[in-house]
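Lay summary. Proteins are chains of building blocks that fold into shapes, and those shapes determine what they do. In this project we predict the shape from the chain. Here is one chain we studied, written as its sequence of building blocks.
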Amino acid sequence: MSLTDTPTWVAWAVLSACFAALTAIFAKIGLEGIDSDFATLIRTVVILIVLTGFVAYAGKWSNPMELRSKTLLFLVLSGLATGASWVCYFRALKMGDASKVAPIDKLSGSRPGSHAKSRAIARARASRASQWCAVRRWRRRATAPFGDGYVSCAQASSPAR
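And here is the predicted shape, written in a compact code that computers can read:
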């Protein structure tokens, strides 16, 4: 599997991880001198405006009342859980260090695709390492940098589990 064969969702998952990292930094700075619940409201309004524009621009707008009742119920439940998560997250950020709060927040298995993100990133890294090893073998070298140290090309080419 080459990098050009990497599924599109991997790119979106990596972007999600990058934006999630920025969220902790921006939120911690933005919480100075403001109530965490009010900050959550401001964040939610921004998200509502941005996503409304995105959905309208992309031509993906549809009537939510035409959704199946089960779909609508679980989207509402997901929204309630997300709101509760954000309130708790912002309160934790207000009281603690972002460097300590963010990793705990990321432990949640409830984040959509969190486990899949980790596996996708590991596969992408292994794929890049495998490709790099092929080039290195071509140059008659036996090892390639991967992670914190050096591993053999055979080790680098198998995805982490």
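What the prediction tells us: The first helix runs from residue 8 to 30.
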